[in-house]
Amino acid sequence: xxxxxxxxxxxxxxxxxxxxxxxxxxxxxxxxxxxxxxxxxxxxxxxxxxxxxxxxxxxxxxxxxxxxxxxxxxxxxxxxxxxxxxxxxxxxxxxxxxxxxxxxxxxxxxxxxxxxxxxxxxx
Length: 123
What we know:
With about 120 residues, this protein is mostly beta strands. It has strands at about 1-5, 10, 15-25, 30-40, 45-50, 55-60, 65-70, 75-80, 90-100, 110-115, 115-120. It contains no helices and eleven strands.
């Protein structure tokens, strides 16, 4: 199983980025998908998650209204659209895949993890 995240980079505050995560080696549809982030010296924190069929989405309060998670089953891909970026959004962003009927918002709910992509927001 491999989760390949991409789309990170350097952006000014107020700008936008779209992260992508392509899943391979697994059947995509039974997995709920999540995005987490980890800044230097901090623990990995939840950003957003999407249910298996894409019908439900969940967000951390810090990103609600600015970030949107979506998935494309034909491409085995999950996306994170990030708008109105702030310097405090700077972190390595990880995508993850989890099984089970309940879409998890904690790291324990995810079995597979991608390698991470760095997002840096300058002020």
